[in-house]
Amino acid sequence: MMRRRTTLLTGCTALALALGATACGGGPVSAGGGDKALSGQTVTVAGVWSGSEQKNFQKVLDAFTEKTGAKTQFVSTGDNVSTVVGSKIEGGNAPDVVMVPQVGVLKQFAKKGWLTPLSPAARRTVTADYAPVWKTYGSVDGALYGLYFKAAHKSTVWYSPDALTQAGVKPPKSYDELLKAGHTVSDSGLAAFSVAGQDGWTLTDWFENVYLSQAGPEKYDALAAHRLKWTDPTVVRALTTLGRLFQDKQLVAGGSKEALSTDFPGSVEKVFGPKPEAGMVYEGDFVAGVAHDQYGRSIGKDADFFPFPAVDGGKAPVVSGGDAAVVLKDGKNAKAGMKLLEYLATPEAAAVWAKAGGFLSPNRKLDLASYGDDVTRATARSLVGAGDSVRFDMSDQAPAAFGGTKGTGEWKLLQDFLRDPSDPKGTAAKLESAAAKAYQD
């Protein structure tokens, strides 16, 4: 969600050393071909990024300037992209390009008539170099508006190699093996999992991985669009499966009470901080940034990951999130903004941030050698290799009132479920009631 983007993806700083910002590749691209064709023009870009993420994206913008001559200006919107961008449009000061962190917001912008469809050149690149699923998530009513430049891999379970070695367990391949391994870790003296229950979005990610693997992609898509009700037996089954972990005090560090007072950074600290309390923490690839930057963990040595395991014989899930670049109709320099999108679509642009760290690209043409370490290369390989089986974060596809608001909707109801997972059917009914209202409004 938008809130999570600014508060924790800023922790996705370099997994290894920042290696400079010189663009690689060198073949001619749509964005001017290096002939300074846009000299004298300025492209304004708005997005949620701040801190290290903003600095690394600026390296990409600087490479665009070097190639085309266009100057750029980045405006950090904070949490609420739609409100900030809406107010700028109303004030006659619309940015040219917006980096949108949610499918739901992209759809909202398109429905309001704010967006310009991608140029033929950008469409050709997306068709050729991206899995079709990214085109689907960037489209509204058949028109392609969004170019997914930055992605997240949300099907990674991070662990302390020392903790698993001490317990004598190997990374599990199934959910049942995951719980079994967790009990073995617990028997060795550490809790199995650190759960960030204070941040409701982490619980939606837990649910989405279980649901995608157990119910399959078609049901996942239907539930994400609310064509399937949350009272469906597949939802109850997924909640029941998740509840097996949540209700087990041996598996969750400090039990549900402590989990509900642990935020995302705190959950990483419990595994990779100076006084470890758990052996594993589930969340996206951005866990590595916090483990490395905050606690000095060497990624691949002191901190590693295994894929979220398959549930009940299903396929191992690959849930993603991402930031899509869109061009606003009302921007003062929308044509130059579209040239920026054409550049962002190239592996050359992606390589700039990949070298700096804290970044994954859905672009299949990006050389994996561009990433600074083996673990990031592995997560990128998993994301790109999943092709059309990737599914976008379900709560990011929902109306914010249901899937993205603290203290209400899915976030609040899954926190209640973590507190007491004894009634999956009742929780499903409450989720359906909240979803029905949000999708109707």
TrEMBL record:
Keyword Signal annotated: yes
Chain positions covered by the region annotation Disordered: 419-441
Database matches in InterPro entries: Bact_solute-bd_prot1, SBP
Pfam families, alphabetized: SBP_bac_1 (PF01547)
Keywords from the named record: Signal, Transport
Biased composition (Low complexity): 425-441
PROSITE patterns linked to this entry: PROKAR_LIPOPROTEIN (PS51257)
Keyword check for Signal: yes
Signal peptide limits: 1-23
UniProt similarity note: Belongs to the bacterial solute-binding protein 1 family.
The protein, known as: ABC transporter substrate-binding protein
